[in-house]
Batch of 4 targets.
Target 1
Amino acid sequence: MLRLASSWVWDFWLADDGDRYHLFFLKASRALLDPDRRHWRATVGHATSTDLTTWTEHADAVIPDDSPAFDDLATWTGSVVRDDDGSWRMFYTAVSRSEDGINQRISSVVSDDLFTWRREPGRQVLEPDPRWYETAETREWPDQAWRDPWVFRDHDSWHMLITARANHGDADDRGVIGHATSPDLTTWTVQPPLSEPGAGFGHIEVVQTVAVDGRPVGLFSCLASELASSRLAEDPVGGVWAFPAETLAGPFDTAQAYRITDERLYVGRLIQDRAGRWKFLAFRNDDENGGWIGEITDPQPVAWVDGRLSVGSESQLESRDVRVSS
């Protein structure tokens, strides 16, 4: 588990260099006292582990840029991939002081070793295309949703999945999986969304798609407070959700999403351990009294149960007469 004495930690993403796992996470000082203040003071922290359980903290990976800049207020959730030349590229969400954090954009930084990251001159700053997505000017939501890039290669193209909102539909039901593609990780083209609005979610946060035991599946997170009224009436609980997928690059039917944890855990991620077993990590969100925690869990096993992804301890999964993923 990762718990920092000086900082809360929440959204996170992982990279594996073959020897160590690198954990990148949002962090903010506990001296703020009120965890709701953390978002506008977020930096990207860094820790490493050989077993996904015991972590060693390092210097922060990314901090807000000097003003004026599109990322001079806070740096938020992203993902890390390795380029063909051996360098690493981190895509992250950025908000600026001049816009009071309303506009969300996506950009990237580069590293040779996963420890020291540099901003490149002329790097692309990705914004939503108003042909398909809400923008800061057209939004019917507290802020513009264009964040949490999940980047992966599928065949000859790089894909980016994005927390986004469609520019049509009921205001509380516009959450979609945004999409962009690139031939080289540096030049990106925004594409239409990979899911449809009306699936029951105001936003679809921190999307990840992977193949667990050869079966594609997606994860995202959504709190009860961001569920559409239609889904809220059926089951008024948020958390981490899974959804079926034919391929990692969509399209996706998020109306078929099912919850795999409640709101005690948030921002679930799947990663393989050194034995090739799939594990689930998340950050601890609310305690039994509704208080906010802000730390990252130990890995938990996952398995397919009646065609759905399930998370739990080895004994819990075995008691359901299923095979733990390997």
Target 2
Amino acid sequence: MKLIPVRQIAKTPTLPGTTGRFRIRDLQHVLNGKDLAQDHHKHDFIFVLAVQQGNGHHEIDFKSYEVHNNVVFILRPGQVHQLRLTAGSTGFLMEFDLSFYQPPKKALYKNHCTMEPVQFEKLHTHLVTIAEEFTHREESYQEAIKARLDLFFIDYIRQSPNPSAIADTGNNYQQEQFEALAALLEANISNLKTVSEYADLLNLSSYQLNAITKASVGKTVSEMINDQIILEAKRQLLATPNQVKDIAGHLGYEDASYFVRFFKKQTGQSPEAFRKNSK
């Protein structure tokens, strides 16, 4: 069973007593005058791509986006993506793990945002300052970076013209529980597939949990479970050469034929047809 490649942040010098990993790079240095073409993979860190000028294509968990001027992409750990960038693109690529800095949850569920030039410039200014702090590494530079990250994510949420994937209901408890469920689904979908199991993990009743998901995204918990199974199946089908029976086993299905029927019912095509049609 081949696993989806997981990339990690390259080791960077750290000061005694500091935790976590962080780095930020100018896109022109990353590209070095060449086109960038990355196959499907995922990260164990937060990935922020801010393109000031450029072209390309970005696929995040099988949603396709065109890369163009004044666009920002933010990926959570575990999301699968494929990136194409043309030589000469400008902007920044920033990477950090959650032990270094934890962004607002609302920002992490907004993978993509296209901005007006004035809006983007404000974010770009924060990134320039962060890059300078990271390069010079003067006293307390990590604290300065985290302070600028606070401002970056505030402006990302505030200036974005695109609605969040999660409805802003004003209910912080509801949003926290929904995000906790999303994280549990990502981590446990191969082993846990019932509403009651996730409700127990969150110390809620199935009724309470269903009320939260219906208010947040208009779906039942069962629908979210099914969505997560299909998402992980698609990740495996497109990012690995694994056979369908092995993918079924990875997702906790002893009967591969049952998994095939389930996948077809949810998507309208068999796993093999999805793989072939998506190439």
Target 3
Amino acid sequence: MGRKWNNIKEKKASKDANTSRIYAKFGVEIYVAAKKGEPDPESNRALKVVLERAKTYNVPKAIIDRALDKAKGSSEETYEELRYEGFGPNGSMVIVDTLTNNVNRTAPEVRSAFNKNGGSMGVSGSVSYMFDATAVIGVADKTIDEVFEILMEADLDVRDIIEEEDNVIVYAEPDQFHAVQEAFRSAGISEFTVAELTMLAQNYVNLSEEAQAQFEKLIDALEDLEDVQQVYHNVELED
């Protein structure tokens, strides 16, 4: 897949290490997922996905419980899921997923982040056709052969299995997300280093050092926005 998944995740986690921003965003995402159905992950698959992600980012239990309690209570706060697409330096592609309770705030903020950092907004569909929705599940202390055997025993045919540093990363169809995790759990694996439903580019591009520096400023500006939950792109970032 050509994506250094854990490196990107660790960079984001490190960036947010001394702030509460990442936890606040998870709080909103958990609340919205819980409001879509029952506030019980066993009967609400969307909520279960979010909670699995939260676990890999070490979101405190208090944050999770607060969001679930809010969903169970009388709160009628509503959020819209909106996707924006655009271009960064040298034609790089960016997808921005948001959860917002104020559409009139979100769109101008996203557009401003693009415009101020060498990018431009595109129309719906201008970028997303070059990305594939993908389930990404990572485990530690296993070899590719061991993971392949676990998936074979569960009769799961996934897109790809790669080794990345000390992890084995499984790329699968979105609807295989829970099945892959259950296969691992049946094999005695209960902790995941990655558990994401994401958008992966079909092809990645490299930028010059100057263009990459500008691109990273664009991504940082987008991720800093309150309403932005996820940012996906097709740039192979160099350390």
Target 4
Amino acid sequence: MADSRRMVDALVRSRGGGLASGAALGGLALIGGLAFRALRGAEPPAPGKGGPDFTAVAEDEARLMLRAMVAATSADGLVDAAERRRLQAAVSEAGLDADGQSWLERELESPADVDEIAERVTAPDAAARIYAAARLAIDPDTLQERQFLKMLAEALDLPADAANRIERDVAA
């Protein structure tokens, strides 16, 4: 798929309300900020003042974020009408070509499992970003979605306090 970063940005922004509506810098910046706070327990310094550029995510990591987001969306075995509308809005906003749309459909038909996602993550910062992306993709209102997030955090070796901080920040 050509540009997973645009799709991740669009999916986070399509979430609407709360934290995502304030994502003026985009979805990747929001994900990066959540991950930074989760691991360090502090606000990141502002960009341009020695702060990291959270939008500088490699295409491979953005694709993995996207796979985690799709897997989270599919965790309860059903992509409901609201989730489908969000995905379609994000596809449209990101300007995905036919190949990108086909990739997304294949992911929805056969989403990655937590081990498949986690085996590609080697750094704690990346683990926190992948988890934050998956959490932003859903409102975990079913047992299966909550279980998926728990299993993902464990597979990523994400410390429980970091996962809890992400949950608190997203739910706020």
